[in-house]
Amino acid sequence: MTAQSGELIASQIGANLPYLRRYARALTGSQDTGDKYALATLEGILAGEEDYDSTLSPKLALFRVFHAIWSSSGAPAAENEDEPSLAAKAQKHLRRLTPNTREALLLHTIEEFSAKDTGRIMGVSEKEASELISIAYEEMARATSGQVMIIEDEAVIAMDLEAIVTGMGHSVTGIARTETRAKEVAAQVSADLILSDIQLADNSSGIDAVNGILATHGERPVIFITAYPERLLTGEGPEPAFLISKPYTEEQVRSAVSQAMFFSSTETLKA
Description:
The chain is of the alpha/beta class. The chain has 2 domains: about 5-140, Butyryl-CoA Dehydrogenase, subunit A, domain 3, CATH 1.20.140; about 145-260, Rossmann fold (3-Layer(aba) Sandwich), CATH 3.40.50.2300. Helix content is about 55%, strand content about 10%. It has 11 helices and 5 strands; from the N terminus they run αααααααβαβαβαββα. It has helices at about 5-30, 30-45, 60-75, 85-95, 100-110, 115-120, 125-145, 155-165, 180-190, 205-215, 250-260; strands spanning about 145-150, 170-175, 195, 220-225, 245. The protein has a 5-stranded parallel beta sheet with strand order 2-1-3-4-5, sandwiched between helices. β1, α8 (about 155-165) and β2 form a beta-alpha-beta unit. α2 crosses α3, α5 (about 100-110) crosses α7 and α6 crosses α7 (about 125-145). The longest helix has 26 residues, at about 5-30. The termini are far apart. The model is unreliable at about 75-85 and about 265-270 (pLDDT under 50).
């Protein structure tokens, strides 16, 4: 690798690293674990130890290297399977899913790779990738059902999210437009999952609302929605494991909700 090509690759990686970190966190359900895999990918490429195919699009090439590392190590196991924590239970549940289905689903929905490119990243055919995506939807739909709280100040978006969530077989405990209202709703009915915007109606923070709810009522999975995901994936301090970009698609919401239900140790941002 020449110095010039190395600089170009470093620039390409830098532009796409926030999205790799988002994917790695959703895949592992952990900021720390996801970032370790992303860092291993970065170090492997820059050291010339991993095959970064510059003939591909930068994002596709980066994710291919990640998957070469990921597949060689396998999904991380819970740290203590004897401990009846929500995280341990989630990891045990995940190991019962068909191998590679979650990876395919996340790549296709959250990162918006085509089935063909999903297959190229994972080293399978386009047909196999499509089948894995379908299997993931079916298995997760059967495995997850619960109550969801929505924190969103735009009425049209809130109604759309409610329709998607209920269409998946979940129920909605309430919809809040402000931090204060969110805390009131949380006090009335316990939710298994929180789906939250970042900026709320009265300029209050969805992050503050979520952290207040978790501090009072205990941990549960959280999905944040934002028009600027790269601003929340800076590597400075705790960050969300589950993040949807605006404008979102129904597939993205369905995928994120199904994924997040498995991980009740979701880490959230600090204000």
